[in-house]
Amino acid sequence: MSTKIPHRLYLSEDEIPQAWYNLRADMKEQPDPMITPNGDLVKEEDLYPVFCKKLAHQELDGETRYTPIPEEIQEVYKVYRPSPLCRAYNLERALGTPAKIYYKFEGNNTSGSHKLNSALAQAYYAKEEGLKGVTTETGAGQWGTALAESTSYFGLDLIVYMVKVSYEQKPFRKAVMETFDARVIASPSDTTNVGRAILAADPNNSGSLGVAISEAVEVAVTTEGYRYVLGSVLNQVLLHQSVIGLEAYAAMEKLGVYPDVVIGCAGGGSNLGGLIAPFMRDKITGKTPDLRIVAVEPASCPSFTRGKYAYDFCDTGKMTPLAKMYTLGCGFKPSANHAGGLRYHGMSPILSKLYHDGYMEAIAVEQTAVFEAAKQFAQLETILPAPESAHAIKGAIDEALRCKETGEDKTILFGLTGTGYFDMTAYAQFNDGTMSDYIPTDADLAASLADLPQV
Ligand SMILES: *Cc1c(COP(=O)(O)O)cnc(C)c1O
Description:
This protein is α/β, with parallel strands linked by helices. The chain has 18 helices and 15 strands.
């Protein structure tokens, strides 16, 4: 054990985890099962038209504790992993806190985010099953990019439905995906029944994530050899993202340290679920009962802090089965905030259950405060954070400032999910003082929650 903790600790290639960890296997109670709108339990075979078989199995498997990571996936993980565990010495000094701040940085790949960890797995299993291609939607762009990297690597076709307004406003994201040979279609489009119906009624429709999901699912289930893939929320995605937490755990063990608080941003819950997995295991099994785990979400899309724990559709088009989760209602329209990757109406069913049972805390933070934290972090730590990631930074800074007041030298670990180079419009608005903080009213939330399915 070193006496001086390095600024960045990289595990060696051999220390990359060889199995993903399934937190459900250690939960005292399982998350409520996925059901159909009629209330029937969803069986593995029911998912086959949408997901490839091994992923459908991972989705419903709450028992298998460790799933070996196929060698082909380990080979690509080695290209950009292990990701570093960093000690934020400069930030600690600037804050004048006795707290020790660590972060796990996942931005070191073309998507600039953790999403590649699951995209590779999903593309690999699709290829292994002999499929021709996959479809997906993209909102913020990181998921589409991560998937494009993965499908090009494993030799699959990819069709990305990109919300039309993003397609027009963010041409560089489209260019990156096309560099990896993805076919990017502005949604709504004339390539699907859903899209054609919407365009017939409203030719100038600028699209939404819900519509893009509906188009991607329609193409997947009606095209021979295609399946649909999703970048967050699902149990399978949290399983793949456990690689983040397992690496962080091993690195901290090497340093002889253990966190008092683990903090992550929460959109659909995949990075947070992955980061906390082995730490939450310790908490659940009684090894570290006092460990605190904190989700940070945008005040503009506050699923945990103001949502309802209920069965809801996973998409706006109401095509998916129902999941029990913290939700704002599948018709909730978040304001156009800049943390695009956190603008989802629901939350991972695994994290929802843990939060509901009191194993986790959640806080909501406002956009301008998040960008203040992002700017401070960028200036001190030489990484320009993604706006999504900056929610976790804000949570960590606030925690460190509380330690300054109380004199506690807590160890804080947070997830730095990615870089923000595609979000410069947002940074520009923050810098010139035109960024606003919209928070939905109780009436806004009541309206979308009134539409929850009755089951
Ligand atoms: C997508 C994304 C998120 C949020 O997604 P989760 O599934 O909640 O992790 C966070 N950070 C970045 C950089 C993202 O791209």
